[in-house]
Specification:
With 517 residues, the chain is an alpha+beta fold. Helix content is 53%, strand content 8%.
């Protein structure tokens, strides 16, 4: 009796099954939650090798930016030589739609580092028409899922400046209300010509939404572009455009203490008419680097926060993660915006582009006018501290809980003293270890940074009503430089505390050097 299926038939069925699986996996790129998830999905598809490559080429005409991004990551993961050859052939194929050819060229240039000569563009339509079609497709997806704008603009920043400028020009041929948000975001593009063109186009839209966008941009632009946004806003206002007043409840602002490494969290909450609903924006800032990260949620992702704000109250807020908690100070909204504006200015001084997530959500925090408050409880308190012994007791305050030396090498020194760190008879060994930690952790150039952070802590403590501790922090900020680090009581206290914490952790089997490796 002959077999029901020959080996050749079985091979064909296996191949068809694989093609179907790859087709489905590539279509599912559109469901990726973030870039990390997209890369993971592309890595799984890359295992199919030649089959994945042929289906990649077949999907170049996609109008989904997330799928395009997944195809680019997939191209990087596949064997280079056949992938480059297939994409070059697709880019030159005049029978393919222009969008597919352009996608192939983008992957070749931006993701695979291939140089393309002018002949690749033979037979393509007017690039301005292509830009307009691309923008229409993107806006349709953004309207359905607004956060995809971040992904679209991240990809656009990988393109040459001329491409981005064509997108800005294309906005002039679309319905003005549909392009306000993309122009606002493009106004923060790190490439000055793109940002300038977007600002000029945004200023030409006689819409309240355009005025709001310009107003929200003022704290986020470098000095070279700030006057352009300011003039654009004044021009719209003089032409009769008014920013509609909003009845949305005011933002509630909470500020964490700054830690010894310069990090600080700003949390903003705005309640919605639903009792259990609201908007949450969390921003992580650094006193030297500016804005580090921003997150958004429809629900407040932490527990233990009273429903009614009381300025100056300090909350111990517990996060959903086990044993995770932080101190948060209720502050006036404009006070928190002052801290945020300072972080933005530091960011721009460095010439860095603002994180895309912050650019996207920042309009909600800055859509109302703002200028730095002339006076509120940030003033430095009087310096009435008597001596260093009193001043260093600030480290006993809960707000200084995160002041530590967060370096794995501290554990190397701690291993050398072991349990002697807690033995009064072995004070000499502990002091020698403290010398080593201070020398390594606090070079002279770092002292001014710590003084600045103590100054910010003094302001935070003042608003919290902790007058005595605030005075001591201010006194330390003013006097920290007067004693060399190796003899400085405050720095030695920090080092001593870090060593004892490391010894204790090691006794319990906790060693960050192992987790880091």
């Amino acid at each position: 009796m002959e077999p029901l299926m020959s080996p050749e038939d079985s091979k064909i069925i296996t191949t068809l099954r694989q093609r179907y699986q790859v087709e489905q996996a590539i279509r599912a790129f559109s469901q990726a939650e973030d870039e990390e998830d997209l890369i993971r999905r592309a890595t799984e598809v890359a295992q199919y090798g030649e089959t994945a490559l042929s289906i990649l080429v077949a999907h170049l005409d996609t109008d989904d930016p997330r799928v395009r991004g997944g195809l680019a990551y997939l191209a990087r993961l596949l064997p280079r030589e056949p992938t480059v050859a297939a994409l070059r052939a697709a880019a030159r194929d005049r029978k393919r739609p222009d969008r597919a050819r352009l996608a192939a060229m983008t992957i070749l240039e931006r993701f695979l580092g291939e140089r393309l000569d002018a002949t690749f563009f033979d037979g393509l339509a007017d690039p301005r028409i292509l830009a307009l079609e691309s923008l229409r497709e993107a806006l349709a997806e953004i309207k359905a899922n607004p956060p995809t704008l971040m992904e679209y603009l991240s990809q656009l920043e990988e393109e040459p400046v001329d491409v981005a400028l064509m997108i800005v020009e294309a906005t002039s041929r679309l319905d003005p209300p549909d392009v306000v948000e993309i122009l606002r975001m493009l106004s923060m593009d790190p490439r000055p010509p793109v940002a300038r063109a977007a600002l000029q186009q945004l200023s030409s839209l006689r819409l309240p939404a355009a005025a709001v966008a310009l107003q929200s941009l003022l704290p986020h632009l470098p000095q070279s572009l700030h006057p352009l946004a300011d003039r654009g806003l004044r021009k719209l206002m003089l032409s009769g455009v008014r920013i509609a007043s909003s009845e949305v409840p005011a933002w509630r602002a909470l500020i964490s203490p700054i830690d010894s490494d310069g990090y600080q969290a700003l949390w903003f909450i705005r309640r919605t008419p639903r009792e259990d609903g609201g908007n949450f924006i969390g921003v992580l800032i650094h006193d030297q680097e500016g804005i580090r990260h921003a997150v958004y949620g429809d629900e407040v992702p932490f527990m233990g926060l009273p429903g009614e704000p009381l300025i100056g109250m300090v909350h111990l807020v517990r996060a959903p993660q086990p044993a995770a908690a932080t101190l948060l100070l209720e502050a006036p909204f404009d006070a928190a915006r002052e801290v945020l504006a300072h972080a933005v200015s530091r960011h721009l001084e460095r010439g860095d582009s603002l994180p895309m997530s912050y650019r996207f959500y920042s309009v909600q925090l800055w859509d109302s006018p703002w200028s730095p408050p002339e006076s509120w409880s940030w003033e430095t308190p009087d310096l009435t501290v008597g001596d260093w012994e009193q001043a260093v007791t600030v480290l006993e305050h809960p707000a200084f809980y995160t002041w530590n030396i967060h370096e794995p090498w501290v554990y190397e020194i701690a291993e050398g003293i072991g349990a002697r760190a807690f033995d009064p008879q072995q004070e000499e060994a502990l002091q020698s270890a403290v010398d080593r930690v201070v020398t390594r952790a606090f070079p002279e150039e770092k002292v001014p940074l710590l003084a600045d952070r103590l100054h910010w802590m003094s302001r935070w403590l003042t608003l919290a009503g902790e007058t005595v501790t605030a005075q001591r922090a201010a006194w330390l900020a003013a006097h920290l430089h007067e004693i060399p680090p190796i003899d400085n009581p405050f720095l030695r206290r920090l080092a001593r505390t870090a060593l004892r914490a490391a010894v204790f952790n090691l006794s319990r089997g906790v060693d960050p050097r192992r987790s880091a490796s």
